[in-house]
Every structure is written in C-alpha cells, then in structure tokens.
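Lab notebook, bench 4. Still working through the backlog of constructs that have no structural model yet. Next entry is a single chain of 86 residues. Request: give me the structure tokens for it.
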Amino acid sequence: MDSKNFPVSKHIAAALVTVKPGRLREFHWHPNASEWQFYIAGKGRMTVFFPVDNARTQDFNANDFGYVPSNAPHYIENTGHRSGLS
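Model written out:
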C-alpha cells in the first residue's frame, strides 16, 4: 500500500512481510518516507544505522511497534525459535 493506491497515506508505505526464523529482511532504506512496523508474532531484532558511526539495535516481540526514520538504513532479523537447532 502506498499513496498511489491509498491517497490519504502521503508519506508512508505498508507491506506484510514474513521473515523465517534465523533469516534477515535485507538491508534497505526509504529515502522519502519513515517506516512504521507492527510485529504480529514471534521475536525479532532490528538494527538502524544513523550518520557517522552510530547504530541502534533493539529486540521486538509480538504486539510491539518499531519505527525507522526516513533515509535510515536498517535490517530486521527473525530471532524466534528455529526448530531442530539447539
């Protein structure tokens, strides 16, 4: 969803993304919009990079919200249960 098909959302985009346990949502950024997240299930960890040698990493659980400012590179890791691994 974005402003092309939902005009009231001028500077946001939305997507439903599933990240398998132990996997990453690739490193990316959004030059023209901030990113809001809602964690539906499981556990995750997000790292956001800010200018000059500054990064923040935070863990998330189901029902948590995350936020990434416009133009801040970031990635998300699913840190939930990986069956068969100890």
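Notes after review: The chain is about 0% helix and 40% strand. The two ends are 38 Å apart (CA to CA). Flag for follow-up if needed.
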